[in-house]
Amino acid sequence: MAYRANPFLERMSERTTSDQEFVHLFSPKVLEKLEEDCLEGAVHVFRSPPGGGKTTILRAFTPNALRAFWHARPTQAESYRQLIEWGVLDEERGPQLLGVYLSCAAGYADIPPGVSSVKEGMFRALLDTRIVLRTLRSLPDLIEGVAGDVLQDIRLEYQHSAIELSSIPLHGTALEMIAWAEQREREIYSLLDSIISSPNIRTPSQVRFEAVLWLQAVQFIHNGRTIAPKRLLMIDDTQKLRKSQRTLLLDELVNIRPSIPIWVASRSIAFVDSFLSQGAREGRDIRDYPLEELWGGRSGQQFAAFAQNILDRRFAQQTTVPAGSFAQYLSDNLNSSEIEEAYAQAKAIFESNMNRLRDNLRYREWLARASQRPSSINPQALTDLYITRILVARDEANKQLSFELVPLSEDELDERDSSSVQSAAEIFIHREVKLPYYYGVDRLCAMATNNPEELLNLAAALYEGMKAKQVLRRQTQPQLQPREQEKRLRDAASKKRDFIPQSHSEGTLAQRLLDAIGVFCREKTYSINAPYAPGVTGVRLSNSEISRLKRTPDSSDFLFGTLRQVLFECVAENLLVPRESSASTSREGGTVFYLNRTLCAHYDLPLQYGGWQDTSAQALVEWMEFGLQPSRGLGLEVA
Fold it and tell me: 193-204 pLDDT, tens per residue?
């Protein structure tokens, strides 16, 4: 295996990764999440932010990758077994599915804009031509032969339905079809060059996409044997198309009612409901796969298993650090001296805050228990101090004067405790006495926000620390301690935040808006009574506010149009994670925009979902324009 300075920096979707390396890095957890019906005849839309794994999934079904899976079956048993079960691979004959991969990253948006049938005809013709070319050029990879030799031996036969094709000829050999498609592509580009100088020139008037009909009607015969009986068309990077092209493509693909599966991959798009075909029935005509939701939505529990599989497969490719699992090099144990120092500091703060209540009968038992020194100073002892502070603050805010003299028992203290209060106490400890919080494999996976590429970026930062320790301390394991992990993860989070202006058309405004949301959430999180435990990590716009943003702004409301674009980009780039919020008796429904979990680490916020606060489009516009200054200090205060 080739040496890698940092295996977590290489992206599997890049063609620089060989197919053999690809299958060794590919996690079978991906196939486990895909339902078998994803290979049924329909349009299947895969959506995610950049780095969400769309192209990786598509690449796994290309001919070279499938053949690599077949050859690697002793070492890739899980993926191999799943592909055999689906009929994608055959134990004796190898790949049975021809995956035709096409990217929309270049060429299609070069067609001049417009909604005329002329422009639509050229788009259809170019896409059809490329599908035919890609199909035929993929056949030698599927057979594992020399391209020229294989193609000259392939005959084409057609089902009766093919006679309806008017724009694609029914030649009898692969070489004849390739010659036609190459000539057709040259003609289209020649016409495209002519259109730029003479817009009235005659162009193709193709009225429908026919390559799908051709692909499902053609049979490939090689040396008297039918090959590639199953077909899969994969169209990637559709966000690169113009909106009108994307809508046209999806609508017409759905209307064809294909008998073969068509996978369409695109980045997540905010507020664009039209991306899913109008009138199409989800579940029959079109099936939608938001990849971040496949991994368990907010909880991310299923993503954690997938993430650790990815990390271990990458870690196995390096030789600098001794072999093992990635997680074993991330210590979960805080240093005892750190805990004792933090406990002493927290105890002093506790006594200072609770001194005014020493003579209060109501809290006598609670304070007495907190005053007792535990038999051992451990993280739970520290957490218990903060739980008591939180519950006292809550009781003070809610108690009725008539019950002031009723003492609260230790049992009631335990009853009022909860997992959310425990989680709030942990982030409060981090904030006030600076004990590490962002460490361990579970929080690493949470920070990735259900995104494999973001996971690898964070893991790459940790791996650099492991390597440094291995070089400097050869006698010990290069295990990263919690404080070392936190420093590297927060440095990576800060770099992510700092890079925003370079990666967005409205990057400076996006950064200012996200910073303001971070300040707002921090203000709401660090109230000593933890009203939104474990904390606030998002803002909500009601449906009325969303509708206001969707409306085409007039000249007086241009800032709302800018805000819409900023939110659009932030969602598309996984900087904000939208979640629907249901209506209740006291409020209408809406959309919560949660901060990306890596950015939560930058803003010193908890990593759990759930806590959010309502805001308005007007407030977001002001934050985007002017930012938001914090009104509280670094300590914990009463809301």
Answer: 665 555 555 555
